[in-house]
Design brief:
7-stranded mixed beta sheet; 35% helix; globular
Length: 265
């Protein structure tokens, strides 16, 4: 029996989680590694993932299902306005984010409420699909770190790689051809759950929230590097439709030689 006031995944979301592995497995070979500490698994918990393509939500849904998690996904309001997708998002219990607010935190009272109810919340700290030329995480938006620091809820970084091979940029344009390729080739898609990001020493001031944001992005990069050891600078396959930009390049605080050097063993 669930605790009074604790959020329970709606039946439709539980069904979607149950079939997600078969759906994703039809077009790729999903490899999920890492684990979550027992003391954070039951929630409240924030999952912070990198985003590289339109197939990411399905991949992360299947990965979370393997971990026994039923996250509430923070998604842009545009998805909720779409006729069919929006209805599904609401039925699944996902959370709408209005990106036009001054900060993401101001747009996330529902996320705070979800955490208060013991939910697992999945978010993308970059705030958009990465436009970095190498498809590395971009500089993060501060809302997620603000949410974590003010609620003292642990943040687990998730790195994923390979989903960009399944669906092209600008989907549905070009989707059929790429899906046909994926059905035949079934590329490997990797998802790794890392250890919680240390944020307990930070307070809710703007400079410390920026530090927390950078730590979250650094942690995602640390988990992503082993997933793409032969693609340190650029991916092997570059989508010709995908725009690139250096406007939001993240300054990685880890190894000073990154990404030129080989990842640590």
């Amino acid at each position: 029996m669930s605790e009074p006031g604790r959020w329970r995944p709606p039946p439709l979301w539980r069904f979607a989680l149950a079939i997600s592995g078969a759906v994703v497995g039809s077009v790729c070979r999903l490899r999920v590694t890492g684990d979550l500490p027992d003391d954070v698994r039951s929630g409240p918990l924030i999952l912070a993932a990198n985003t590289i393509g339109a197939f990411d939500p399905l991949v992360l849904t299947a990965a979370c299902a393997r971990q026994g998690l039923a996250p509430r996904i923070l998604a842009t309001g545009g998805l909720f306005r779409a006729p069919l997708v929006g209805a599904a998002m609401r039925a699944f219990g996902h959370l709408r984010v209005d990106r036009r607010r001054p900060t993401v935190a101001d747009a996330l009272p529902v996320a705070r409420e979800a955490l208060d109810q013991g939910a697992v919340v999945l978010a993308y700290p970059e705030g958009r699909i990465s436009l970095d030329p190498g498809m590395w995480p971009e500089r993060g938006k501060t809302g997620l770190a603000r949410l974590a620091i003010t609620t003292r809820v642990p943040v687990v970084p998730i790195a994923q790689w390979g989903s960009h091979l399944v669906l092209p940029w600008g989907t549905p344009r070009g989707m059929i051809g790429r899906l046909a390729w994926a059905l035949v080739r079934r590329p490997v898609v990797r998802v790794h759950f890392g250890p919680p990001v240390p944020l307990d020493d930070l307070g809710p001031t703007a400079p410390e929230i920026r530090i927390g944001t950078d730590r979250i992005i650094d942690a995602i990069i640390d988990e992503l590097r082993p997933l793409r050891p032969d693609e340190k600078r650029l991916p092997h396959w570059i989508d010709p439709q995908r725009p690139v930009s250096n406007a939001r390049t993240h300054r990685y605080r880890g190894s000073p030689g990154w990404p030129r050097e080989a990842p640590a063993a």
